[in-house]
Amino acid sequence: MKAIVFDLGGTLMEYVGMPYSWVDFYTEGLEAIIQKLHYPVPAEAVEQSLQMLKEFNPRQSGREVEHLADYIFDKVLAHWKVDAPISACIEAFWSGLQLKARIYPDTIPVLQELKEKGYAAAALTDLPSAMPDERFRRDISGLLPYLDYYVSSSVAGYRKPNSRGLELISERFAIPVPELIFVGDEEKDRETAARAGCSFIWIQRGEKKEGSICSLYELLKLFDEK
C-alpha cells in the first residue's frame, strides 16, 4: 500500500476569512460566552482571559504538547466563577465566531482519483487552539468520507512539528514512516516530515513558489511522472 498524508487547513480546506493567527478573534469568542450565558463579567476579567488564551496559542508559545479544550477553558475561565458547564462555554465561544469551513474544489476529486490509483489517504492536522476535536470533525464532515484515517493533534496528543501523528498513521497502515508522503502548506509541516524522515510536498495555493505546487491536480501529475 502507498499512503499520502495531508495537512488540512490551507491544504485541503480552510475557514473562510480566518487569518494565519486567530488571536485577534479571541475577544469576540469570549464576548459570545457572556452574551450566550447572560453572565456579567468585568472587562479586566475578560482581558485576563484573553491574555491566557494567547499564552496557550501554539504560535505564541511554541508548544508541541496538545491541551484539550476543556483543560484550556477551565484554566482561562476559572476566575469568572461562571455557574455553567465548561462545555456550554466552549460551545458559545466557537459558535460566536460563526466559522464557515470550505473544502477546496480540487480536494475531493483528487482524493477520489488517488484512491482509484491505489493510494490510502490520511489527514494530520493541528486543531485551532482550544477547539474540540468533535467540533472540527463536524465542520469537515463532508471531507471525512474520502479519508482512510484522520489524526488531529487531539488524537496524537502532540502538535506539529512533533512527528507522533505520522507515527500513528504509519502504525495504522503498517507502512514505515520513511515511506509516507506528507503534503502540507506550512513550514511546520515541512519540519514534521524532516523530523520523521519522510517525503514532503509543499503546496502553496494561489502563490506558487519554487519547489512547490499550487493545486492538488499538480500532485496527480507528480505521481503520474514517477
Please characterize this protein's 3D structure.
It is a single chain. With 226 residues, the protein is of the alpha/beta class. It has 2 domains: 2-16 and 101-225, HAD superfamily/HAD-like (Rossmann fold, 3-Layer(aba) Sandwich); 23-96, no CATH class. Helices cover 44% and strands 15% of the residues. It has 11 helices and 8 strands. It has helices spanning 26-37, 43-56, 58-61, 69-76, 86-96, 107-116, 133-139, 153-156, 164-173, 187-196, 216-225, and strands at residues 2-6, 13-15, 101-103, 119-125, 149-152, 181-184, 199-203, 212-213. Strands 5-4-1-6-7-8 form a 6-stranded parallel sheet, with helices on both faces. Helix 2 (43-56) packs antiparallel against helix 4 (69-76). The radius of gyration is 19 Å and the shape is elongated. The model has no long low-confidence stretch (mean pLDDT 94).
Topology (SSEs and partners):
Elements: E1 2-6, E2 13-15, H1 26-37, H2 43-56, H3 58-61, H4 69-76, H5 86-96, E3 101-103, H6 107-116, E4 119-125, H7 133-139, E5 149-152, H8 153-156, H9 164-173, E6 181-184, H10 187-196, E7 199-203, E8 212-213, H11 216-225
Parallel strand pairs: 1-4, 1-6, 4-5, 6-7, 7-8
Antiparallel strand pairs: 2-3
What descriptors fit this protein?
226 residues; alpha/beta; Rossmann fold; six-stranded parallel sheet; 11 helices
Structurally, the number of domains stands at: 2
Give the end-to-end Cα distance, rounded to a whole number of Å.
16 Å
CATH superfamily of the largest domain: HAD superfamily/HAD-like
Shape by Cα distribution: elongated
The tally of strands reads: 8
Name of the level-1 CATH class of the largest domain? Alpha Beta
**Strand fraction band?**
5-15%
What oligomeric state do the depicted chains represent? single chain
CATH architectural grouping of the largest domain: 3-Layer(aba) Sandwich
Radius of gyration: 19 Å
Could you give the order of strands across the largest sheet? 5-4-1-6-7-8
The average pLDDT value, as a whole number, equals 94
Task: Predict the CATH topology of the largest domain.
Answer: Rossmann fold
Element string (H = helix, E = strand) = EEHHHHHEHEHEHHEHEEH
**Tally of separate helices:** 11
